[in-house]
Amino acid sequence: MSDNGWPIETVIYKEANGARLKLLVCKPEGWHEADGRSAVVWIHGGGWHSGAPEQFLRHSRMMADRGAVSFSVAYRLLPSPGTPDTAGRASSLEDCMADCRSAIRFIRTNASRFGIRPDRIAVVGDSAGGHLAASLAFGPAFGLVDGCDSEQASVDADREVSARADLIVDCNGIVDLTGKWKQMIPARSPVAGCEDDAVHAWMERHERAKTWSPLYRVSAGQPPMLILHGLADDVVASEDAVRFYETYRSAGNDAELALYPGWRHAFILFDYKAAETEVLRAMGRIEAFLARHGY
């Protein structure tokens, strides 16, 4: 796969909390609205509080070189630790997930505009973006404590349009928030001196962590998924990837697992931690998965 310089188009898919959220769109050479191509959507990582869609521009161009229309998603980020909330930021992981659902709905609603098929939308995510990508395997109530979208998600143009991905690639994604990642879950302060309330508050937070964890939301009928993970990853445990794969397969879903000895976290990013040969190898594995499913 070459890295041709296909032009990038910026499209605003949503406005929420003062933020104008964009998609970076890359179309193949010779693209036409009537093509009915496959779509590949990229979701960046960064612990839900950093990162940018530009991290996947080269990947998008590589996929455009293979004939797909690529999209890289900007979503609201959580405030950095120790900083106050600011306009345009997410208030919780639920906002991040709601934005990604909005992006898929927007792409699917505008499939003819982008020259894609609305039933052939593949999503690839890295790290926290892997969490968000895996979240798109589930139904409309995934991660929703009250069973409905967050207030910000109410701006979606068409709530009847499915936000579920048709194919998913999870690159070293965070799939279990009940352990060290529970720090990302809002906690209420228990009544001072009341032991029972302290236990109840802890259990409430634990259940919310499960609600927002893809590992605990697996059921039959979910889309095919490729899970890639490095065995030298010291950010997200490789055991979590294996448990997620086993659970996904046990539910009867199509899943593939690729483990890489010596590979560290975020191996899918160019010019970061991984050697370019590693990134290209991972990209080749993703391409093979997409090809196996006719993308």
UniProtKB/TrEMBL annotation:
Record Gene3D superfamilies: alpha/beta hydrolase
Pfam families (alphabetical): BD-FAE
Cited InterPro entries: AB_hydrolase_fold, BD-FAE-like_dom, GDXG_lipolytic_enzyme
Segments forming domain BD-FAE-like: 38-246
Keywords associated with the record: Hydrolase
GO molecular function per UniProt: triacylglycerol lipase activity
Family as reported in the entry's similarity comment: Belongs to the 'GDXG' lipolytic enzyme family.
Name of the protein this chain belongs to: Alpha/beta hydrolase
Source species: Cohnella rhizosphaerae
